[in-house]
Amino acid sequence: MKIELIDVYYRYPGQQEYALKNINIVFEAGKIYLVTGPNGAGKTTLLLVTAGLLKPEKGDVILNGVSLFKQLPGARRLFGFLFQNPDLMLFNPTVYDEITYSIRQICNDEERIKSRVKELLKFFEIDENILSRPIHTLSYGYKKIVALMSILIYNPKILLLDEPHTNLSRKFVEKLKKVIVLNRESGGITIIASHNRNIYRGLADYIIHISNGEIVKIYNIYS
Fold first, then answer.
1. Are 204 and 30 in contact, with CB atoms under 8 Å apart?
2. Residues of the chain with pLDDT under 70
3. How far apart are CA 42 and CA 140, in angstroms?
4. DSSP letters spanning the chain
5. Contact residues for 155 (Cβ-Cβ < 8 A; gap 6+)
6. Nearest partner of 208 among 14, 41, 16, judged by Cα
7. Domains of the chain
8. Buried b (16+ CB within 10 A) or exposed e, 172-196
9. What pLDDT score was predicted for residue 223?
């Protein structure tokens, strides 16, 4: 599995300046990429374009040799996108409804769905009582974990995580790191946008520094 961004330029509607420009990069299977840079550098936009949620004005995103935009919406289930603000993702009345919403679009086996929910609760060490709680009663950190579970439930191979650690307890940060490692071990691709290099020290295979919408440098931590 491989994702290539080729000569990508992206400009938000009504803006004169490009949010991304001259982006050329390859994301390979079994690797973890950390995208760093100042506020407004283009980190989130890079993730959104890579996921096919934004279409470049110029250039293309290639998934396994074919333009991603020719494969949508079928390729969508390969991607799991975690927004920095979980409130942008959560819209169902209860935690159970939220976690299971995405998988219900591709699976109608209720027992299988329930089993997968139990697996996730066990992994994150969360009591089943949370399932009946209204989303609005959760803390910010728990909202973020619920949003993450709503992605993981359908086993995407490409994880795009925007500041995923913010407002998480130490326990959940460690669980998040385990999710990232497991995705690498299963041959997936993980791309993390974050200001905080220390959190992901020892995890990332590559560090991509972006500034003013351009990739300034790519560091291979093994070289």
1. no
2. 223
3. 24
4. -EEEEEEEEE--TT-SS-SEEEEEEEEETTEEEEEE-STTSSHHHHHHHHTTSS--SEEEEEETTEEHHHHTTGGGGGEEEE-SSGGGT--SSBHHHHHHHTGGGT---HHHHHHHHHHHHHHHT--GGGGGSBGGGS-HHHHHHHHHHHHHTT--SEEEEESTTTT--HHHHHHHHHHHHHHHHTT-EEEEE-S-TGGGTTT-SEEEEEETTEEEEEEETT-
5. none
6. 41
7. 2-220 (3.40.50.300)
8. beebbbebbeebbeeebbbbbbbee
9. 59
- The whole-number pLDDT of residue 69 equals 94
CA distance 208 to 35: 5
Query: Global pTM?
Result: 0.95
Rounded to whole angstroms, the Cα distance separating 37 from 212 reads 9
d(CA 16, CA 11) in angstroms, rounded, equals: 7
The Cα 70–Cα 55 span in angstroms is 11
Sheet holding 206-211, edge to edge: 79-82, 158-162, 189-193, 31-36, 206-211, 214-220
Two structure tokens written together for 134? 């209204």
